[in-house]
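Example 3.2
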Amino acid sequence: MNTDRDWSRWAADDPYYGVLSLDKFRAKNLSAVARKEFFESGAAHMQKIISTVFSSAISNIRLSSALDFGCGVGRLLIPLAQHADMAIGVDISQEMLDEAARNASNTGTSNIRLLLSDDGLTQIPSNISFIHSCLVFQHIPWHRGRWILRKLAEKVDADGHVAIQLLTATSASRLTQILTKARYAFPPIHWVRNVLKHRPALDPVMQLNVYDLETMLADLRDLGFASPTVLGEPSAMKDFTSVYVIAQRSATPRG
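Structure, written as tokens:
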């Protein structure tokens, strides 16, 4: 299945649920209270990540530039912009970027630049101080995601940082994994599963892909991130291990 096409459908039909898959964030259920909770969760998450990455009180952190890859509707991008001269939001969906622009305007956040993504990251400038991504790469097949992550890391400034969330293992049975791949490859299986779970039959697939952690760490070291750190991240996704990879680019790339 084409994950970009699926993501575009989520963006058009149910963007907030596409970001956080809880029923209260469905378009038909999204109350003012739920919307407030949605953005407050993003602010709390970003505060935790920034203070962890930079080992400092959040009030002391000011970045020249920061980027949220897979920014969606701006849940994490808007609070990130509070700590950067320029915050860049990147997404594969123009509909998501349009919604992020509306949300930024509604909060009076003006130091945001929104860019449409492609696999070569051709629109993204270089020398970025901090690149962040959460709940994004898991929806991208591993071999493609590895290439994109390498291209992202190349955009980081000489002393800049990355903080990237990945799924790195699954405890699902072999049978479950086989059935999951089958519904990714053959949509009617997925439609039946939706019905059995009392979801709209034609809801798009939301793939969950596991990444080879050691390969990703080796890629970062090759690009000059000398000592990547791996932090466990609580995951609401059953049967998956989630981590944050945090690293500073402080060495000359190999080769």
